[in-house]
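2024-03-11 09:14:02 INFO worker-7 job=invfold-0412 stage=load source=structure_tokens
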């Protein structure tokens, strides 16, 4: 398990600052085993994908989104690639008006800016309680006003299927068919196909397409050109990628990138 993002005494503190924020970058993958704490947590990445397990949910989340974890909720996280991410820890009494269940939220420009500013103040050692309370109030308003999003990818719980899923998270464009993946993970193609549907609600083909589009959305939000994103996501023909993306998101990749909260900062 990596070092905690903040000292455990702060994650467990009912008193003290209403909000603690931290930004961390490292040159390696970050893996945090299941744990819980008194404070609620909003977490996300600056780049790439993050797998988060919280309560009965397991999601793959791009940098354009965040995960809300209510107080005392068992959760774990795993970055795909070197970790560059952030977390905000909120006092339990401040979480009363926030979602009672863990969920995925879209990051608004205001919420992202408030998180970054709060982390900067913490890194500088600035401890003006009133200033932190004003920033916390902005974050709480933005979280409370956000609608939980269904656009995430559920992760399977079966160890062998999760091995396949993790490998695809690291390399979404890998073109191998399910039969090859099943053989690699040590189970039959039929079993893999059946259990993928049972554990995620999607066939392997639809699950992988959903993963690829989610990866693509995050990369477009980072400013990566459409043609490059299409290739990364396993589409040899950019026009095919554009058509599928428009069918799912209701807009073209170029239009999505232009209106992304990260691009409008």
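2024-03-11 09:14:09 INFO worker-7 stage=emit residues=265
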């Amino acid at each position: 398990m990596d070092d905690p993002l903040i000292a455990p005494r702060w994650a467990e503190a009912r008193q003290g600052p209403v909000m603690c924020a931290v930004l961390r970058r490292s040159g390696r993958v970050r893996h945090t085993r299941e744990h819980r704490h008194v404070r609620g947590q909003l977490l996300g990445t600056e780049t790439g994908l993050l797998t988060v397990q919280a309560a009965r949910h397991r999601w793959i989340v791009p940098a354009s989104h965040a995960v809300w974890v209510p107080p005392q909720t068992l959760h774990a996280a795993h970055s795909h690639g070197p970790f560059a991410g952030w977390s905000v820890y909120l006092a339990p009494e401040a979480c009363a008006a926030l979602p009672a269940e863990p969920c995925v939220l879209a990051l608004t420009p205001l919420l992202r800016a408030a998180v970054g500013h709060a982390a900067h103040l913490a890194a500088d050692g600035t401890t003006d309680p009133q200033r932190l309370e004003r920033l916390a109030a902005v974050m709480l308003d933005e979280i409370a006003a956000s609608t939980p999003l269904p656009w995430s990818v559920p992760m399977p719980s079966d160890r062998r299927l999760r091995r396949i899923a993790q490998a695809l998270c690291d390399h979404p464009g890998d073109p191998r068919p399910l039969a090859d993946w099943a053989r690699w993970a040590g189970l039959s193609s039929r079993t893999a196909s059946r259990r993928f549907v049972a554990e995620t609600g999607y066939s392997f083909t639809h699950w992988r397409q959903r993963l690829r589009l989610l990866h693509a959305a995050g990369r477009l939000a980072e400013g990566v050109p459409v043609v490059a994103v299409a290739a990364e996501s396993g589409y040899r023909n950019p026009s095919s990628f554009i058509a599928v993306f428009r069918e799912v998101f209701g807009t073209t990749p170029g239009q999505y990138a232009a209106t992304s909260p990260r691009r409008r900062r």
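2024-03-11 09:14:09 INFO worker-7 stage=report msg="The longest strand covers residues 19-25."
2024-03-11 09:14:10 INFO worker-7 job finished
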